[in-house]
Write a structure and sequence with these properties.
This protein is mainly α and 46 residues long. The chain has one domain. It is built from three helices and no strands. The longest helix is centred in the N-terminal third of the chain and has 13 residues. The chain is globular, with a radius of gyration of 11 Å. The termini are far apart. GO terms for molecular function: sequence-specific DNA binding; transposase activity.
Length: 46
């Protein structure tokens, strides 16, 4: 059984702000940070 990874609020905010700026696509950001694109979409909505 694997443990879920937790991300700090600072990390989430950093990624969400980059997503809002739209300099990179969500897929490119996901690859850059090693996370799933759906997570970025959720953080962006918050």
């Amino acid at each position: 059984m694997t443990k879920r990874k937790r991300y700090s609020a600072e990390f989430k905010a950093k990624v969400a702000l980059e997503a809002i700026r739209e300099e990179l696509t969500t897929a490119e950001l996901a690859k850059k940070y090693g996370i799933h694109p759906t997570m970025i979409s959720g953080w962006k909505k918050k």
